[in-house]
Amino acid sequence: MLRRLVSALALVFFAAACQQSSAPSRTTVAGPVATKGSATAPKTAAASAQPGTAGTTDADKKAAALNRTACDKGDMDSCVSLGLAYKQGHGVPLDYAQAKALYTKACDAGVQSGCSFMGVLYEDGLGVPKDTKHALALYDSACAKNDAFGCARGGNLRLGDPKSAPAGFAGLQKGCALGDLDSCDQAGWAQLKGEGVKADPAKAAAIFRKACDGGDGAGCNHLAHRYDNGEGVAKDVGQAVSLYERACKLGNIESCDVVGWRLFKGQDVPSDLTRAVAMFRRACVGGVGRGCNHLAHRYENGEGVAADQTQAAMYYAKGCQLGDTQSCELSGDHVAAGLGTAIDLPGAATLYQKACNGGEAGGCSKLADLERKGVHPAAGH
After folding, report:
1. How many other CB atoms are found less than 10 A from the CB of residue 368?
2. How does DSSP classify residue 34?
């Protein structure tokens, strides 16, 4: 029983990681962004799992050992789980050749997930020559035998070509029908944008609802956006906010930032600064740079928390590290003035340069001011 549980959990975790690493990001968020004197739409932040980047824990090593024992005894699901561990470097060294061997063993034994995951290797050229045609053949074979992941991968791969897009949409529909919620979300987006099927916002909303009802945070986010804009459904901002909150709880971190902003501004919901700060913190911890920006701004101005320039400086810096260019500019302001951190003019110039390169006019202007004073970005930037 324990071996089966470990194998099943590993399959779920790594299937999600593989799907995230290749499927196009469809995340859409709505809501203004706090700035000093202005408000614009927030930028999305999509985190993709990359092979071999996750750390190996003792639990990973134990799971790999259990799956190896089970695989050696003929449990093909455990062979697939072990192959996924080798592909990602979880509990074992990163080794695409080992992953392929294990996938092949399972696929040859009739375990369709092994065929699908082997397709990923060929699609991405991991340890084998990149071969999209062979990848599609593996996906199609698995999908025909009701492997949802194969349907999803083949569907997404075909959507990029107008000629094969209808077949791609059909694959996503089948994956959705088989219970793969990411397939539902992707099919909803294709239906909304008219990729492989006639654009139909109402049908798209229905598909997003299925994904959301099944517990997919991105599906809830997309459905919320439809209610926000009256797209395919009657406009209902109250319903939109409820769906953004559900999306946040389900792990769609961008939605946490959206809810935080609305709570902060009292936009469509009663104002609640304490809850807003909690939402911004959750977004920031989850890797959304704009969430760090919003959290830093609250600490800077004492809104929902006690004013604390050290915390503000820290969160602006984190926002910048996460790619939020406005945070780079505001972090530069703190570093230049020594607000909550040590004064470091070359460091400030470096931050302004990042902001400027990201399209922040204020960053360009402040960098120019420092350059005129003989202060230049730190070496290597």
Report:
1. 12
2. E
pLDDT tens digits along 272-282: 999 999 999 99
Q: Are strands 33-34 and 39-40 parallel, antiparallel or unpaired?
A: antiparallel
The secondary element (H helix, E strand) that includes residue 249 is helix 237-249
pLDDT at res. 52: 44
pTM for the model: 0.76
278: nearest Cα among 265, 261, 266, 301: 261
Task: Quote the distance between the C-alpha of residue 218 and its chain's center.
Answer: 9
Q: How far is CA 18 from the centre of its chain?
A: 12
Best CA proximity match to 334, nearest among 349, 317, 313, 314: 313
Structure tokens at 97: 């050749």
Average model confidence (pLDDT) for the chain?
87
HSE (CB half, 13 Å, CA atoms) of 158?
24
Closest Cα to residue 272, out of 283, 284, 282, 262? 262
Write out pLDDT tens, residues 187-230.
Answer: 999 999 999 999 999 999 999 999 999 999 999 999 999 999 99
Q: Give me 293's structure tokens.
A: 């920006």
Please give the average per-residue pLDDT across 350-362, as a whole number: 97
Please tell me the number of Cα atoms within 13 Å of 128 on its side-chain side: 21
Q: pLDDT digits over 233-290, tens only?
A: 999 999 999 999 999 999 999 999 999 999 999 988 899 999 999 999 999 999 999 9
Output the six-digit token pair for 58: 């003792």
**Close Cβ partners of 214 (under 8 Å, ≥ 6 residues apart):** 179, 181, 184
Sketch out the chain's domains with CATH numbers: 1-16+58-145 (1.25.40.10)
Contacts of 232 (CB under 8 A, 6+ apart): 192, 200, 201, 202, 203, 204, 205, 226
Query: What does the alpha-carbon distance between residue 127 and residue 90 come to, in Å, rounded to a whole number?
Result: 17
